[in-house]
Amino acid sequence: MKPWQKIVLYFVIAYFVLLLGPIAGFDLPRIVQDIIRSPSVLVTQLLVGLINGAIIAIIALGYTLVYGIIELINFAHGDLYMLGGFAALTVMGAFGMQDGAPFVTAIIPMLVALLVSAGLCAGLNVLTERYAYRPLRNAPRLAPLISAIGVSFIFQNLGLFWGGLKSFIPIMGNTAAAPKSFPDLLPRIDLLEAMGIQTKVDFTLKDLIVLVVAVSLMVGLNLFIQRTPAGKAMRAVAQNRDAAKIVGIDVDQVIVMTFLIGGALAGSAGLLVGLYNNTIVFTMGFTAGLRAFTAAVLGGIGNITGAMLGGVLIGLLSALSDQYLSSRWTDAWVFGVLVLILVFRPSGLLGENLQEKV
Amino acid sequence: MNLVKTLRSSSILGSIAALTVLLFGGWSGAVIGWLLGTAAGYLATHDRFVPTPKTGAQTGIQAGLALGVWIMAASLIEGLLLRPLSGRAAIPLGQTWLYALVGFGLAVASATLMAAIQGLANPRQRQATLLTLAFILIIFPFADRLAQTGWIATVIQIQIFAMLALGLNIPVGYAGLLDLGYAAFFAIGAYTTGMLSSPHLGIEWNFWIVIWIAAGVAAIAGVILGTPTLPLRGDYLAIVTLGFGEIIPIVFRNLTDIRIMEPISSLLATLFNRPEMAICLLGCEETFNLTNGETGINRSGDPGCRSLAASALIITCRGTTWCWCWWCSRCL
Question: Region A117-134: what's the mean pLDDT?
């Protein structure tokens, strides 16, 4: 193609994007005007996107770990995260936590909730691996995938059932399917104001806590993978399962450990999203799972740093789309990005070029 | 040994038939006896050598008797026990016996016929089997109507899902391409049908024309999705199709208030701060509602008698006192 033809082509594409984009909220003049009028909204949305992105990144790590080891798209992972949220909410109910409870009294319930939801999700994930994926390890690729979709449905219905247990857990609200409100426990003290900086942007202690927990989980995972013998074994199995077996690595044990870690991360993400967004619903696992999966693919599936980067990017994209495009179209934009990335760069942003897989 | 196999397959069918009869009662025994009798006749003979129609018929009678006993027993239990116990209006004893015997008889007859056909020489056997199945498909709506079982809606659902499964089998089964967004093409076809054959957009074309357009539009959508994703393999293809399958419902749900402005003119209008410069292309006075959101497009065209009559491809049934198609009674 000659250079001028390329320029004409790009111009035509840009014209059509501008022509049809406003249908899905991509109205460039309005967006520019909005940003110029109130830049602080942009910063606030970036902050929200960063924190939601960190939570998505934690879920994405679970996808990418499992995919790296056994090349299975674990569709049940998103719903596992949802169950983590319900477990955390149940612990909050058991401690009688309400909106606006003093932060000091909420510390112990939150730690217990972290342990319970991480432990429950890790256990469930290991059970799933044992009974739904391991028997199919040598089956055609499609079989474990379908099995994962089935487990996802089971988890979703488990969440629906759990949400209906209001006689045991009063905090569960009225109907089983309705969104549950998660007690708002983290203090909303504006840190910037406390430091004496006057801005329109709120950066609260709540944001900081969620961000710190999320980042420390990611850093901890990275250290575990890079520095410990168990992490080394995981990397070895991811590279070549047969060779790892030859040098004496117990592959089954490594896979169980991977699912354990992935489940614990999903459970912690469930608690974090409850604390940050203050609402959980039994269908949230599906959307969050797809977003997290998009994040994992965006960063290069199987790549741990890539999953973190992808999570943050997806979080930013959805926050900006909610604010400036249209919240109704956010999912379409996210999946549009997924499709475009896969078509033009299947190995993701940080993934190495995997010829045989593409 | 063969007898045991015959009895086993017929009893599996018989238990299904008995359950149906217990649930529906009445003439359902006759309909299910006819349908499953054919199936029993085929199952009893399909995996063995049948030299002549006569030997086939003998096997078929065995299968039909085994099935018929189930149906007869179920009919009698339903009529004599379940009905009085559940407090519904009792039916006369003679009527109950009639239901039971007709069901029994149809099961035996259709099983014998189907099994006898399997004994024909090869090209004739194949033709006759297909002919019998075609006959069942054509007669079933009438039989369903006569027997007042009301299964036609369910059967249509079954056929739609069977068509979907057949379609999905092409990429996944034959080509080995895992397509997780297959339902999106279903949605595209459905919305095309809805838009072209409902009062929503004021276009009310005939169903029998729209169905081909819908198939074409869905096929074009498949080509559009398929061209860029063709180099991808395995899981990556699965992910792209999954993403596509998520985008399509969002698009259809949200195409409710469309206003399209010509981009260059609207950019200039923004720059010079003169809104009247922007040229509007679609949805100017009020926004254009293409898909009607969550409510969907209601009252899309149906393939019933009006369509048939208007398409003039098939004998018109309006204005005649006797209508040959069961659904035509709605518009007589």
Answer: 94
Cβ-based contacts under 8 A for chains A and B: 85
CB atoms within 10 A of CB B231: 11
CA distance A50 to A70: 30
B87 to each of B74, B80, B84, B90, how far by Cα in Å? 18, 12, 5, 8
Element (H, E) at A259: helix A251-277
With an 8 Å Cβ cutoff, the interface of chain B facing chain A consists of: 172, 178, 228-229, 231-236, 238-240, 242-244, 246-247, 250-251, 253-255, 258-264, 266-267, 270
Residue B87 pLDDT level (bands cut at 50, 70, 90): confident
pLDDT of residue A118: 94
What is the spatial distance between Cα A71 and Cα A61, in angstroms, rounded to a whole number? Answer: 14
Q: Is A179 helix (H, G, I), strand (E, B) or coil?
A: coil
* ipTM attached to this prediction: 0.78
CB of A270 closer than 8 Å to CB of A119 = no
Determine whether the interchain pair B243/A338 forms a contact, defined as Cβ–Cβ distance below 8 Å. yes
Residue B95 has pLDDT above 80, yes or no: yes
CA dist., res. B108 & res. B14, Å (int): 12
Cβ of B246 within 8 Å of Cβ of A19? The answer is no
Q: For the residues B127-150, what does the mean pLDDT come to?
A: 88
pLDDT in tens, B272-296: 877 777 777 777 777 788 888 777 7
Domain boundaries, chain A: 59-276
Encoded tokens for A230: 């168990």
**What tokens appear for B97 in the block?**
């016996």
- pLDDT 10s digits, A71-83: 888 889 999 999 9
Q: Tokens standing for B73?
A: 């027993």
In angstroms, the CA A317 to CA A315 distance is 5
The DSSP bridge partners found for residue A244 are none
One DSSP character per residue, B42-77 reads: HHHHTTS---SHHHHHHHHHHHHHHHHHHHHHHHHH
